[in-house]
Amino acid sequence: MVTVNGQQEVNVAGKSVAQFLSDRQAPIENIVVEVNGNIVHHSEFDTTILKTTDKVELISFVGGGR
Fold first, then answer.
1. SS3 letters across the chain
2. Do residues 5 and 57 lie in contact, with contact meaning Cβ atoms separated by under 8 Å?
3. What Gene3D superfamilies does UniProt report for this protein, alphabetically (predicted)?
């Protein structure tokens, strides 16, 4: 199973990062994806395929302020 933010998730292995984020309805323009300690650039979302042993961290940015 792929580990996402510390939680094991099924039906993720074999998907591209882009498909994984789309399935989660994640805001692609405001997210940083790290796979096994390496940042995946937005241009690589379609070609980076997740494997069963991968550890994925998703970091979202939220705007705000005064």
1. CEEECCEEECCCCCCEHHHHHHHCCCCHHHEEEEECCEEECHHHCCCCECCCCCEEEEEECCCCCC
2. yes
3. 3.10.20.30
Q: What is the pLDDT of residues 2-30, one digit of tens each?
A: 999 999 999 999 999 999 999 999 888 88
How many folded domains does the chain comprise? Answer: 1
- Strands 38-40, 7-9: pairing is unpaired
In a domain, 65, yes or no: no
Q: Which of 60, 12, 18 is nearest to 40 (CA)?
A: 18
CATH number at residue 41: 3.10.20.30
